[in-house]
Amino acid sequence: MLRSAVARAGAQRATFLRSFSRSAPVCAVAPPPKKQSKVTRKKEVKEKVKKGGMTHLKFGDAVRQLKYENLAADLTGLGLAELSASDLQSISSNVVVYNNHAEKTLKELGAFKKNQNHELFSRPVSMVTENTSKIHSEFIEKLAFESAQNRLCLLGEKGAGKSTLVAQTQALLLSHYKGDVVLLHVDQAEKVVDGSSDYFYNPSLKKFHQPMFTKRWIKKVRAANEAVFKKMPLTEDVSFVSKKEKHSLKKEKHTIYDFLTLNHEFGFYGPSNAFQFFVKQLQQHSSKFPVLVSIDNFNALIRDPHTAYFHTDMRPVTLGDLEFGSFISLLVSGDLSFAKGGVMLSESKDLGECKTLRAGLRLEQPNPYEPAEKCDLDFAKQMTKNGGVKTFQVENLTKDQARGLLLFLDKVGVLQIREYPTKEIYKSLEESAFAPGTTINVGEYVRCQDREAQFERILQLTYFASAGNPGRFLKINSLTF
């Protein structure tokens, strides 16, 4: 009892105790400490300097991308003649250049192909040979007639100059018709069938449309034929929607160039008749403006009976199932024809022998029991329709033409005429050195005693090694000597 009383008395006394302090009582909860932000030091990054002269491309593409022709010797001082249809006889067996208009047009068409050593010269050059004169008489002069009766295929070994002859034909046509000619050129025919373009089925035409390929091809054709397309008015009214804007072009008021510039349905993912309308307009104007259709690497289209594209049920798509492929097939067979014009095909030896092409040109008898993978008899029969496609064999250079080409290479600095030093020359130069035992630079060994004799030796050697093939002849002289 006593203990509890004492405890209660102590508790009562404790309630009346007060602490004395000069500061005010703090009742609020203390806030949490602020997070300290990390102070980072800015690292000094050195600016990377891009190395010049480097490229990820392979040699064939790099020489075009890096524009090595800007480093070549200027040709203006040589007085080279321009390729012209009226002066063809006087410039025979001579190296010529293209006039500014023809050169610009051919570049836009893609007529100057890679691996043709264009980087050796400041501008494209060409040699007029018997092939040029023969193509003028057998093909260009017949362009005033129907294109179905003027179909030609260039044949020849690799490096013979088939693609160069196509470019010469286009330049001669521009000269002959004073620019009033339409040039439709396919520089890489394998792009039509190799599966590199998107495609979809157009139910209105029952063909497969290739928007990406067609749009790019139309863009090149429009740029190359701008002047002549502006002279060709539309023969009928046409309306279309482009970029959510409706266009209505009137006949005789607007031109084909206006149609190709405003119409974007060539790359449109939907039913469109723009390409068919363009071809129809060219047909209606072909009586005044001849049309040349040239296809390089033509055998790439027909070396296989099927393309790299497939139907929705995985059936392979043929060349005729494509809208652009059907356009080519009709031209080759002659079922699609222009009032004035021609069709020029060129094979490529890089793709090997094509039995379909040889059967279509009637160079060999097709075997009916041969599988379709080796010879497409259906397409071969199309080539024989309406008189068939004629052949043109591209010949190599003669000895005199090779001499003229070698002289030109010497003038522009491509050919290095030097005499290979013998051991006797080494010894005599060592003995005549200023101090015995000192080395002499390589340039001092290279001395040509008789320049003309050495030139003849180079001509004999390279012409024999190349057998007059222009491609090999130019390659040997530009890389070896």
Structure, briefly:
The chain is α/β, with parallel strands linked by helices. The chain has helices at 2-15, 59-65, 100-109, 130-138, 162-176, 211-224, 226-229, 256-262, 274-285, 299-302, 323-333, 355-360, 377-383, 399-411, 423-431, 442-445, 451-466, 470-479, and strands spanning 95-97, 125-127, 151-155, 182-186, 200-202, 207-209, 238-242, 245-249, 291-295, 341-346, 390-393. It contains 18 helices and eleven strands.
Instruction: Report the portion of residues in β strands.
Output: 5-15%
Distance between the termini: 130 Å
Provide the structure class.
Answer: alpha/beta
Give the SSE order as H and E letters: HHEHEHEHEEEHHEEHHEHHEHHEHHHHH
- Give average pLDDT, whole number: 84
Radius of gyration: 38 Å
User: Main beta sheet: strand number and arrangement?
Assistant: 5 strands, parallel
What is the strand tally? Answer: 11
Task: Note down, in words, how this protein is organized.
It comes from Metschnikowia pulcherrima. It is a single chain. The protein is an alpha/beta fold. The chain folds into two domains: 335 residues, no CATH class; 81 residues, no CATH class. The chain is built from 18 helices and eleven strands. The strands form four sheets. It has a five-stranded parallel beta sheet. It has a two-stranded antiparallel sheet with strand order 1-2. Strand 5 and strand 6 form a beta hairpin.
